[in-house]
Specification:
This protein is of the alpha/beta class. It has a single domain (5-54, 72-192, 216-295), classed as Aldolase class I (TIM Barrel, Alpha-Beta Barrel). It has helices spanning 77-88, 104-115, 136-139, 142-153, 171-181, 219-230, 246-255, 265-268, 272-286, and strands at 5-7, 10-12, 16-18, 40-42, 59-62, 65-68, 94-99, 121-125, 160-163, 185-188, 192-195, 197-198, 203-204, 210-214, 237-240, 259-262. The strands form four sheets. It has an eight-stranded parallel beta barrel, surrounded by seven helices. Strands 5-6-14-11 form a four-stranded antiparallel sheet, with no helix packed on it. α5 (171-181) links the parallel β9 and β10 (185-188). α2 (104-115) runs parallel beside α4 and α7 (246-255) crosses α9 (272-286). The chain is globular. Bound molecules: flavin mononucleotide. Flavin mononucleotide (FMN) binds next to β6.
Length: 301
């Protein structure tokens, strides 16, 4: 059975990826599962300088999901390069550095710093709904998506994944813009902007008032967007949004994803990535599939 997939020239031993911001820098999960068995680890979103993130509370449970307004808390790209990356590179999994910033120059500077390291791929987060400036502002304007992708593309030789926002009217426009700007792959979806109110206090539950919605409740939206984007561009897609079990991963691949990222499910079950991988293998065995790539875009319409 072949579980390996190749995305932008990088071969992952299997299509299971951790979604940025839900798996720390990998080591936090090391006591629960063997990181060698994961296809790729997308690390917590990095910024040029360390960030403390937003005030608490910044997580709220919802029906079949969560709202978060973490706001890109991270130790900064330099500390990642010096301390976290060497630890992660001890494992067989590929390493995806997720980057975010307030200006195009921030993204470019990080891309340049990471270019000289042994990260396998860069994932450009232009879709974070939880920061005041930058973030999602870059990912909701077609011209801006193309401009920032072009600028970052020029500053790195690493395969470049552009992470798209679902908070747009037509996600295929953004996908085409990223392709025009020189992206090598796309990942989608980031979280959907949401809000929750405590009816006893009549105050928003999140200190930030609004936050990003993720988890099983968003899966049908993610599958729809992956399907639309797969039919609009020729770039490989890392699909995510609510994937919780093997069948969810299969569904994402049938919609057109070449690999599948697992996010919120890691909080409910720290071994989710490997459970999902095992269930994916069972699906392949039960359905006579010898190569996981056969699933990609296999939906019958
Ligand atoms: C607590 C939390 C933090 C996140 N942080 C990031 C981040 O730093 N960078 C990023 O690109 N996406 C971030 N995301 C979005 C996830 O990577 C993913 O796109 C989204 O949660 C949908 O997948 P899921 O439903 O499986 O969680 C975060 C999500 C959550 C729940």
């Amino acid at each position: 059975m072949n579980l390996s997939v190749t995305i932008a020239g990088v071969t992952l031993a299997n299509p299971i990826v951790t979604a940025s911001g839900t798996f720390g820098f990998g080591r936090e999960y090391g006591e629960y599962l063997d990181l060698n068995e994961i296809g790729a680890i997308a690390v917590k979103g990095l910024t040029l300088e360390p960030r403390a993130g937003n005030p608490s509370p910044r997580i709220a449970e919802t029906y079949a999901g969560i709202l978060n307004s973490v706001g890109l808390q991270n130790p900064g790209v330099d500390l990642f390069i010096d301390y976290e990356l060497p630890e992660l590179k001890k494992y067989r999994c590929k390493v995806i550095a997720n980057i975010a910033g307030s200006t195009i120059e921030d993204y470019c500077a990080m891309a340049e710093k990471l270019d000289g390291t042994d990260v396998d791929m860069l994932e450009m987060n232009i879709s974070c709904p939880n920061v005041k400036e930058g973030g999602v502002a870059f990912g909701t304007d077609r011209r801006m998506v193309e401009t920032i992708t072009k600028a970052v593309r020029a500053r790195t030789t690493k395969p470049l994944i552009v992470k798209l926002s679902p908070n747009v009217t037509d996600i295929t426009e953004m996908a085409r813009a990223a392709e025009a700007g020189g992206a090598d792959a796309l990942s989608l979806i980031n979280t959907l902007l949401g809000m929750a109110i405590d009816v006893k206090t009549r105050r928003p539950i999140l200190a930030n008032i609004v936050g990003g919605m993720s988890g099983p409740a968003v899966k049908p939206i993610a599958v729809r967007m992956v399907y639309q984007v797969a039919n609009a561009v020729s770039l490989p897609i890392i699909g995510m949004g609510g994937v919780t079990c093997g069948d969810d991963a299969v569904e994402m691949m049938l919609a057109g994803a070449s690999a599948v990222a697992v996010g919120t499910a890691n909080f409910m079950n720290p071994t989710a990535c490997l459970d999902i991988k095992r269930e994916l293998v069972s699906y392949m065995e039960n359905n006579g599939i010898s190569d996981v790539a056969e699933l990609v875009g296999g939906v019958r319409v």
